[in-house]
Design brief:
mainly beta; Jelly Rolls; 2 domains; six-stranded antiparallel sheet
Length: 312
Amino acid sequence: MKRVVVFSVLAMLALMVAAAPARAAIVIEKYTDPAAFKARLAGGAFPAKTVNFDGIAATKNNAVSFPTTKYRAATGMVITGEGGQYVSRAFRWPGDFVAVSKPNMYAPGPVVWNGAWDAGGNQTDVTFSAGGADMLAAGFACYFIDADYPGTGPSSFTVYDGTDTALDGTGTVVTVDRAHIFAGLVAVDDGTDQPVAAIKRVHIVNGSGWLGNSNDSAEGCALDDFMTGTATYSVAGRVVHSGKGLRGVRITLKGAYTATASTNGTGRYTIRNVPPGTYTVTPKKKGYRFTPASRPATVVNANQTLARFRAR
């Protein structure tokens, strides 16, 4: 009797496992055309955001540092060079390093001065966060500038999933002297053939050493125009008065992104295309007061529906 019971349970479990739908695999698509990369992300509701490094005052002969979180609010990207993050107009070599979007380009540090810029880094990690929480991206791309000695210093980047397991990489990118090349990767759900937020970290290798090196022992390669695709979401809710929906209430969402909406006849509102971040949602209508006066909304990786506002 016991054997029959055990067999029956095992059989049921086997049937349940067999009936469970298999999780679709993540595949990585590779792009060499920026327009195609952006179109693929946009088609999957992941509009591309770009860091062009051009809002920092720099010259051809200096390197200016910036904090890792400088571009987080606008793009979700946290950029960490192995010895700091630097921009310059030419990294002292204007004949070799020409920015894609002028005037600046990027390279990791550290900057070491020995009569010239010498030993330095060649690795950068890009992660993604918003509202104090980590998030995932659907794609990443950048330009490599003057990657013309792959044998001395190969340049590439690799994307990693939420468990920090490598998904795929660009492979070694190669340019002719003083030229640039675009490389992009997009994570796609193999079941739906749509971009999906699956990338937690990007590891970039640009050459083999600091690109202002005063000798030929290292292959210098600059970077420019980091691009990523993170999702946008909606914030929704309802305003009621005496138990019924209140029409015409102006709802304002404020934070890294600002938007407004009005409630409909049932008192409901929806604010769309909200990027990840922390926001405050406030109702307003002449002749009414609201409880609470505002509500916080933290948008990370899902649409948000807030508790009701009550008008009086």
